[in-house]
Amino acid sequence: MVATRSLSGTGAPCNMGKTAMEALAYTLAKEERDHGIRVSIVAPGRVDTYMGQRLIHAGQGVDDIPTLDEFMPFGRVCQPADVVNVVRFSASNENPYLNGECLDCDGGGQNLR
Which of 8, 65, 80, 105 could form a disulfide with 44 if both were Cys (CB 3.0 to 4.6 A apart)? Predict the structure, then answer.
């Protein structure tokens, strides 16, 4: 499952959906582990996508996400490939024991809880 953990103060329906998805993932992780099924969540921060650009523009008035690079962990905005790599690892056989976790893919600090 992929969700974002940054919850806005004005997005009740979206926030409710994200919270419900987390609860479902944690429940499924416990219920299905005896069947060898692992369930975790990947929660990206700001990602350089069309939707990310629209959100940044609406929330911060920024027209070009790369202008935020200097303010981001590791000096750049998260790229779709960064999220793909986390999802790929989470679902791979190289990861036989990770289950019921939320993996924040935010460079280490964007998604404050």
Answer: 105
pLDDT for 112 equals 41
* Domain count for the chain: 1
Q: Is the pLDDT confidence value at 72 over 50?
A: yes
Side chain identity at residue 104, one-letter code: D
User: What amino acid is encoded at 22 in this protein?
Assistant: E
pLDDT digits (tens, 9 = 90+) for 15-62: 898 899 999 999 999 999 999 999 999 999 889 998 888 888 887 787
**Does residue 110 fall inside a structural domain?**
no
3-state secondary structure of 63: coil
In a domain, 73, yes or no: yes
Segments forming the whole domain that contains residue 47: 12-105
Q: H helices of the chain, where? A: 12-32, 50-60, 80-91
**Residue 98 to residue 89: CA distance in whole angstroms:** 10
Q: How far is CA 33 from the centre of its chain?
A: 22
Closest of 51, 36, 38, 37 to residue 83, by C-alpha: 51
